Amino acid sequence: MDLFYFLFIIINLFSILTSIRGEAVKLMSANFDSQVFNHELVFLNFYADWCKFSQILAPVFNEAADRIMKEVQEPRKILFGMVDCDTETNIAARFHITKYPTLKLLRNGKVMKREYRGQRSVDAITEYIRDLLKDPIIEIKEQKDFDNIHESKRTVLGYLSSKAFPRYEVFRKVAMDLRDDCEFFVITGDLAKSGPNNEEKIVFKPARSKLNENDEIYPGSLLSYEELSVWVTDRCIPLVREITFENAEELTEEGLPFLILFHNPEDRESVKVFTREVSTHLMGDKSSVNFLTADGQKFSHPLHHLGKSQKDLPLIAIDSFRHMYLFPDFNDLYVSGKLKQFVEDLYSGKLHREFHYGPETTTKSQSDAPSPNVQFVKFIGCSEDKLVRVCYLENYTRNVSLKQNLPTNPPESTFRKLAPSRNRYTILRDEL
To answer: Are the beta carbons of 341 and 259 closer than 8 angstroms?
Structure first.
């Protein structure tokens, strides 16, 4: 027998015995994927032995694992995993771990958007996991139960003949993934025949629409988790989201710059125009920018930071997590391509350069004076060891037209301050 294969069997056998005993399973490169992808919900503790916060959490995490494993008898339902980031550096890098201990959750092999940041006690952790294990689908058994469907929320309806069939299990897995973004209902039995075309269907109902208006019917296979997951995700998580004080931490954790429309709460027209422009011209940038709307009354501090007030609404800005940049004129939103160029100017560095030195010109000035040479710094990349991160910069010269006034700095990021607190972590290295 191949030695590597033998060791693989031993490691997995040890993991299974440990999970039966109820303790958290120690995960390594050899068993990580097999364990993670064989469990519906995985709760991971990324730790370092030398970190005092990791040492404090370890017995709490193990006791919570023991308590949950005694309650959950269904195999492959839940796994508590421990990853030593000093020895398993590849796994730590894969999950971008920069602070200890970090608690992440995976559902059906995919990282959940929210890390666990609740109270680090056995009771709090077990209650949180119990809630995540609950079936998020509400069953509709009678016509009157349709009253439970809220028109103000995005909703997914499953017209399925029975919960005993595999189609329901696929639907349930998708609902578990997106329980925070949509409400899920299943209509079974004879009532399921009231669905579109009297067939088994998955139907998406947009927020604030009547039950039979603007609905979309899922066109794919009811037995394909991957197909259904992609289709429902595209509808439950809109391209343009609203930022609130409740979800700001989650959004900052994604690490993407914010393109934000600040508007008066009663102003829906600017939201509609902004959303249309983003959907038309910026769909390809959704993996590199978070498109957001914000109540300009609640988020008055960022406006003040930009030198604006509520009387200047609506306005658009980019928060790069270093600086904030103001879209020159909201009316330019009606000019096709202007918002797209604004985003591209962020990534090219033009927004930062122009804030310092004024508009870059390609024509001669009236005096035909040559443009001065200005030194810029170009970011090359970083290399890092466990505790040291070294970054490389390259100087280069560019001809620009300078303003007469002295260079200034763009306003600093304000949403950066809503990022997760560091008070319960040992920080490995500086983060955004």
So the answer is: no
Q: How far is CA 14 from CA 18, 28, 30, 77, 118, in A?
A: 6, 12, 12, 18, 30
User: Over 80: is that where the pLDDT of 409 sits?
Assistant: no
Band of pLDDT at residue 360, cut at 50, 70 and 90: low
Question: Is the backbone peptide bond immediately before 407 cis, with ω within 30 degrees of 0?
Answer: no
Percent of the chain with pLDDT over 70: 75
pLDDT band at 126 (very low <50, low <70, confident <90, very high): very high
β-pair partners for 157: 185, 203
CA angle 40, 157, 113 (to 5 degrees): 40
Peptide bond into 101 cis (omega under 30): yes
**Region 11-35: what's the mean pLDDT?**
70
204-228 as b/e: b if 16+ CB within 10 A: bbeeeeeeeeebeebeeebeeeebb
Nearest by Cα to 402 from 375, 377, 429, 431? 375
429 within 8 A of 103, measured Cβ to Cβ: no
- Sequence-distant (6+) residues with CB within 8 A of 50 are 86
CB 146 within 8 A of CB 87: no
